[in-house]
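Tutorial sheet, problem 5. The two components below are modelled jointly, 717 residues in total.
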Amino acid sequence: MKFTTLLATAAMTLGMATAGIAQDKTKVGFVYVGPVGDGGWTYEHDKGRQAVEAEFGDQVETVFVESVPEGPDSERVMTQMALDGADLIFTTSFGYMDPTINVAKKFPKVKFEHATGYKTAPNVSVYSARFYEGRAVQGHIAGKMTKSNIIGYIGSYPIPEVIRGINSAYIHAKKVNPDVEFKIVWAYTWFDPAKEADAATVLIEQGADVILQHTDSTAPQAAAQDAGNVITFGQASDMSEYAPMPRVSSIIDDWAPYYIARTKAVMDGTWETANTWDGIGPGMVKIGEISDAVPTDVKEEALAMKAAIADGSYHPFTGPLKKQDGSDWLAEGEVADDGTLAGMNFYVEGLEGEIPQ
Amino acid sequence: MIVLEKRPQPSQAWSLATPLVAVLATMFFGGLLFAALGKNPVEAIMTIFWEPLFGEFSFYYRPQLLVKGAPLVLIAIGLSLGFKAGIWNIGAEGQYIMGAIVGAGVGLAFYPLEAWYIFPLMVIGGALGGWAWAMIPAFLKVRFGTNEILVSLMLVYVAEQMLASVSLGLLKNPEGFGFPGSRNFQSYASAYNADLIEGSGMHWGVVAAFIAVIFAYVLLNRHMLGFHIRLTGEAPRAARFAGVNPARLILFCLGLSGALAGLAGLFEVSGPSGQVSIDFNVGYGFTAIIVAFLGRLHPVGILLAGSLMALTYIGGEIAQSEMGLPAAAIQVFQGMLLFFLLAFDLLTNYRLRLALKEVA
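Model answer (structure tokens):
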């Protein structure tokens, strides 16, 4: 029965004519590092893509390729999109940096947008979000909520973006709870549910009752749920299916406004190379609903911090701060500059362990 | 009722026909899968198999087939020699990584010196890196009788950790703003494994893959060592009586497959990939195992199988972006290929017979 249904479907689709594609449509390509169903990083980028479709309707056509390995494969996927007539291509992982630059050289008329990198060109922009602002709020809640005073942190790769997040969360956890201790596990992957779940389990077994993650799947949430009495935060996406416990809040990347703006710029012919690094203020980083598992006073403090970061009155990296080795970094009242933050390769004072080399 | 009956002699015809039948069956059932996903199956199959070879942009995809297929063929050739002799090197992925690390390390040590001898030295370094990594399971097997499947596989994960370590430390680009990954060989002329003819995809790794195919063919058909390899696989006891030294054969097969995997890694890191990075390896070492079997462990078969795998990868990407097929569907499609090959392989040694009378 199933077999005949399949055959029927096959015959039906065979008969369907492929819709012709109008020439004046703006074609936007997306290259994803994970599957669109990862529930985190790639999922949010794909929501951005859908927002572009919703905004411009028939004027745009979007295409995407998921789970593209960083390296020569990504270069081929980008080239293929450019050959196929894409006007604008978003490459959404750090490892796509050199391939993006290479392909951009070959297609000077196509615009490229690389997420989280630092290399630009006349037709290559870079964009990223100040996730560390969200980490500050997270750190505050984590510091207040932990009973064991051990906070587990699942790192992906020891790159500046991740180290920035660890520092930001630690500084704000420590501020409200001087006894707090961070245990960091490096998963060396952005998306691998099995590895992420293992990392979470190990951290929980070592006494962590708060798990922060910088990896993209919901596996750590599930591990925390199984363990019970452990809280987590959604990463990149709201992950609200795990609310109110273990997920008590989240950092959400909202790429939709940026993707819409950049697509519009290409349509209007006003696109220019840009280096965008937006945070909570412009709405690129959002704090997901803080659940009822968090006491009201803690929730209010967290929201106050969020508001202060949004209006610019508070910077998560404000001195006095020292580096891990005890040397001075920021003096009283001094604020970290973007250059140092972008290339951050050191822990702040108090964090234990070394950044893997 | 249909029964399986062992053939008195393996069927030569089926042995040659199975890969073809397997490809056709994959196309058919893959088509059904795509149809079930609501895509036009004929268009999808055409996109995967036709587009890269003869489509509008084949001028770009054809060279890419070489780039994608070369490491698969190079690694699979090495593996096939061992597999023929019943020596199972499952850790080519690790040897590929170590070849890339050592070879790239040699090149980066000379930076920014420009000299003709740098690339040849890197090639030697790459081969040695892979060889040395494969020698660990080889030595442990010869000396202590350990299982080379487990040891070589586990060493893949060790190699991945080493890769992460050197990307973040030893080989990290000092001008990379603290980001992981080495300098890019594409901007270091003496060490860059460029296309021999611009835009042809024909880099030294492709040349090496072709040489390896010829070398393996001659070795297996014209050389005593090749005979020993085949004999050991087919009749280990007879091989021992014929004076084959099993220890030496293990060292040779694992060493050679390691060296070839290491070479593949070096050519990839110094060419298409360009840099040592944490995610440098994308599974060529494992896919090559499929390629080796798809090619019936025969050098020419491996060449064809490698090309076919490369085709499904590249065509699969095109189908994803043009038709919106999910990546998982393409992976299932590739998996079907091996599944049908193994399934139809049965017909080489068995035949189907209609049994009219059932035995009570």
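Marking note: Residues 157 and 188 of chain A are 5 Å apart (CA to CA). Full credit if you identified this.
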